[in-house]
Write a structure and sequence with these properties.
The complex is a heterodimer of chains A (101) and B (169). Chain A is mainly α and 101 residues long. Chain A is 77% helix and 0% strand. Classes of the chains: A mainly alpha (101), B mainly alpha (169).
Chain lengths: 101, 169
C-alpha cells in the first residue's frame, strides 16, 4: 500500500481536531497554549506534505516562518500567563473573567 | 514496506501522544506528551524529504519552546487540577464543536482531493529539503520576510520581558 498525500492530510486533520478539543476542554491556560502549538504543528505537517507532493520548497519556507511566529507567540503567551498569575494566583481560565461581564 | 510501517508507527504514536496531552491532569505530563508528539512529527518531516525542517522542529519546538513551557510551569508551581466533574454541559458542547471541526476538515479533504495536482516523482523532489536549498530560497526570494521575522522575534522578546517584569501591572 502506498502512503499518499491523503494519509498525511488525514493525520494532520486528526491532530488539529485534538488541538481544538484541547483548547475547548481544558481550563489550564498553559495547556491551552500547548494545544495551540499542536494545531500549528498539524498545519505545518500539511504544508510539508504538500511541498513534497508538489516538489516545491516554498511550503518548507512557510513552515520555517510559522515556527518563528509560534516561538514568538509562546514567549508572549507565557509572559501574559505569568503576569496574570502574579495578580490572581491562578491560571484557571474559569477564574480569569475580568472582561467577561 | 518499511516506509509504510514507519508512517503508521509515527502517526499512531503522534495521535496517542496528542491524546495523552489532552487527557493528562498534570501540566508537566501534558508538556512531556507534547514533546513526544513533536518528535514524531519531526520524524514524519524527515520521511517527507524535509530533513532541515525536521532538525529545526526538534531544536526549536522540542528544545526551546517546550523548555520554555516547562520552565514556566515550574516557575508557577501549579497544583494538579481537580478531577473533572461527572457531567458538564460545557464539555458536551466542546466535544460537539470539536467533532464539527473534524467533520468540516474531512469534508474539505474529501471534496478537494480531485483538485490536487499530480504528485511529483520522489526523485525530483528529493533535493528540495536540504539546508542549502532552504538557505538559497530564504536569503534571495524571501529575504525581506526573513528580516521581518527577525524584527518580530526582537519585539516578542522585548514584549515578553516587559510583561513578565515585576510591578508592570
Amino acid at each position: 500500500m502506498e502512503i499518499t498525500l491523503n494519509w498525511y492530510l488525514s493525520l494532520s486533520a486528526v491532530l488539529f481536531t485534538i488541538g481544538v478539543l484541547g483548547v475547548l476542554f481544558r481550563s489550564n491556560a498553559i495547556v491551552i497554549l500547548m494545544s495551540v502549538e499542536l494545531m500549528l504543528n498539524a498545519v505545518n505537517l500539511t504544508l510539508i506534505a504538500l511541498a513534497q507532493s508538489m516538489g516545491d520548497t516554498s511550503g518548507q519556507i512557510l513552515v520555517f516562518f510559522v515556527m518563528s511566529v509560534a516561538a514568538a507567540e509562546a514567549a508572549i503567551g507565557l509572559a501574559i500567563v505569568i503576569a496574570i498569575f502574579r495578580n490572581k494566583l491562578t491560571v484557571d481560565i474559569n477564574e480569569i473573567n475580568l472582561f467577561k461581564y | 514496506m518499511l516506509p509504510q510501517l514507519l508512517f503508521f508507527f509515527l502517526a499512531i504514536v503522534a495521535i496517542a501522544a496528542a491524546l495523552g496531552m489532552l487527557l493528562a491532569r498534570n501540566p508537566v505530563t501534558s508538556a512531556l506528551w507534547l514533546v513526544l508528539n513533536l518528535f514524531c512529527i519531526a520524524g514524519l518531516y524527515m520521511s517527507l524529504n524535509a530533513p532541515f525542517i525536521g532538525v529545526i522542529q526538534i531544536l526549536v519546538y522540542a528544545g526551546a519552546i517546550m523548555v520554555l513551557f516547562l520552565f514556566v510551569i515550574m516557575l508557577l508551581n501549579l497544583a494538579v487540577l481537580p478531577r473533572f466533574k461527572d457531567f458538564d454541559w460545557k464539555r458536551v458542547a466542546a466535544f460537539v464543536l470539536g467533532m464539527a471541526v473534524l467533520a468540516q476538515l474531512v469534508y474539505i479533504l474529501a471534496m478537494g482531493l480531485g483538485a490536487l495536482p499530480e504528485p511529483v516523482a520522489v526523485e525530483e523532489s528529493v533535493v528540495s529539503g536540504t539546508a542549502t536549498e532552504i538557505a538559497v530560497a530564504l536569503f534571495t526570494r524571501y529575504a525581506l520576510t526573513f528580516e521581518i521575522i527577525g524584527v518580530l522575534l526582537l519585539v516578542a522578546t522585548i514584549g515578553a520581558v516587559m510583561l513578565a517584569k515585576r510591578r508592570f501591572v
